[in-house]
Fold:
Amino acid sequence: MPFCLGCGALFFPRIVCLAIYFASNWFEQVIDNSLLLLAGFVFLPLTLLVYTWILHVNGRVEGFYFVPLVLAVLADLGLIGSSAKSTKN
Structure:
């Protein structure tokens, strides 16, 4: 089941965030501020998932764990994936 959520998070991060939020207390164990959780859901959902995963696995963001966080931010900002050239005709 975690593998399916991980693969689904790449394509539908907000749906996976909602599924995790309602099915477990995974976010509440790491993020105390509900406003921060809502902002992550709206603006950077993949980054929210990766950040909470890192805090569950390592306890803090350092070393190798910084790489997936940076990749998640870039993917959320649209710098990885679709290109601006492909939308122009």
User: Anything to note?
Assistant: The first helix runs from residue 2 to 11. The chain has one domain: 2-87. DSSP finds five helices and no strands in the chain. Helices lie at 2-11, 13-23, 34-43, 45-57, 66-77.
